[in-house]
Protein 1
Amino acid sequence: MKRSALNRIVDTLAFIGFVLVASTGVLLRYLLPPGSGRLQGIGTGHQAAERPITLLWGLTRHAWGEVHVWVAFGLMVVLAVHLGLHWQWVVCAIRGRPREGSGSRVALGVVGLAILLAISVAPFLSPTARVPRAQRGGAARTPPSALPMESRPAQGHGAMTLRELASITGVPVTTLVEQLGLPRHVSPDERLARVRRLYGVTIEDIRRVVAAYNK
């Protein structure tokens, strides 16, 4: 295969990979955000198996995350091949025409590449840590199934969003909005504390809607 034809194939694959990485990233951020649900870990309690999850083309957020990761890996391989095919050009661009100071330019380029590689590899070589959520600036939350009905965060915790409330209780966001008398334009990511403050919704109202839906 001619080098020019190979370059076209590699460039095409790189463009396709870039588009797919960008599109799946936007998909995970906006169409299937955290709290969309997954097939495993649906929780316990009354009607736990009926709690809704969001699917796109039959795939959950977790499955689309896998697609996103593997496409990203493929793009990294294609870019590595692209860099190898153009390595001579890269070396010439760094060196430039032989003149005074060209050696320092090469050294600077090598140092920059080494720093970039070190930053890229560092997360994979660093140990992970498990710490209580309270240490990261947020209040620790006990799993809803382990709390008494009166204190479950799903029934009025101010830091929780409507989307999180829907995910834990199984009550769709649209039902929560309708039964609580909220405007239709309210965002699913609106926090309960703000909802109570702006629209006069009380914790008892939220508990009543959740209890009525789960009867």
Protein 2
Amino acid sequence: MEEDFSVKDNSGDKKYFTIIPNYVYNHSTHWDREVYAQMKRIAGENGVCWSSQRALAKQCVISVNRLRKSLDYLLKHSWIFQIGIKAVNTKSGIQTVNEYEIADLWKKNIDFYEKKKVGVSSRETPSRSRCVTADVQGVSPGDTEEYIYIKNINTAEQSSSFIPLLLKEFETINPAVKRMYGNTTQRNACAELIELYGFERLKKIIVETLPHTNGLAYFPTITTPTQLRDKFVSLESAIRKHQSETKTKQYQII
């Protein structure tokens, strides 16, 4: 299996822009959308570029395994096409890479929404809490293949995709966290936190609460995922006590 691949953009977009059809947003998971967008971006104004799967996965903040699943999805639905395999000269020598062409989806995008007589409503936008597409207005039985794919997302896999994002948020209060991305203990703590409290809630706590509570008397100091997992209840109790004593709503965590 070739690890590297080449991308050719045949979508007809203007230079220096990465434009994504609404059809893609409403018929894919956030992983697939990100892979599609990054492939269009790296294709560049000349239409052809190549990148290792590892590098592209890093840009998308997903695992290589998750990247391969998204590539399979994009190929299955003819959003991209594999047009061949070619040799590329790299620092490690000559390597064979898969070359992809990005399909022109604009006619499909326009026909879909004109046929359904609907625009892009709030019901068609991705859910923040689950990062999957919400109930799409005007989807007929013939359009459900993509929708079924969205509905059957594995919870564990979904949580794992947010782990690097959560670690990135911790870097704002503890720069040393940038060395913890491969730490199994910290990653497991992230997974547990995401499953229990959800990514958006955790992000708000890290960004809006911890910078103010860390160092305060009677508040636990939390600068890593394991500390947040182990001290979450203590932090919650300290905030409730503080709110009760000061009659304010500072440092909300609920």
